[in-house]
Design brief:
118 residues; alpha/beta; globular
Length: 118
């Protein structure tokens, strides 16, 4: 059975990953979340320079959680936007949904947060 995936973020990394998820038989892309109001309602294929796939991007976190995905793959803004990232990620975790995020590097390597490279 395919893992049901929600991806949050359609920046550089998200647009690279979405086609791979669509092509992988072990994943089912059930939702895509965006922060940019201009992308809300836009077909995810269009956002990724692909043919339309019949799935519109949304900024409605509750609607994405209601899809009951197996996991959220979060490519949100950088750790500079920590409060928004933590709020979003926490909502999925509280709903019992696994989360993988590239946005919160200081959680992985706390010393980086204290002494960022120049």
């Amino acid at each position: 059975m395919a893992k049901r995936i929600v991806i949050w973020g359609t920046g550089f990394v998200g647009r690279m990953v979405i086609p791979e998820v669509l092509a992988h038989p072990e994943f089912e892309l059930v939702g895509v979340g965006v922060s940019n109001p201009a992308k809300v309602g836009v077909d995810v294929g269009t956002i990724c320079d692909l043919p339309e796939i019949g799935l519109a991007a949304t900024d409605d976190v509750d609607a994405l959680i209601a899809l009951k995905p197996d996991a959220l793959v979060h490519y949100g803004p950088t750790a500079a936007h920590a409060d928004a990232n933590i709020d979003l990620i926490s909502r999925f975790l509280r709903a019992g949904i696994d989360v993988c995020s590239t946005a919160m590097t200081p959680w992985v390597w706390p010393k980086m947060h204290l002494n960022p490279p120049n």
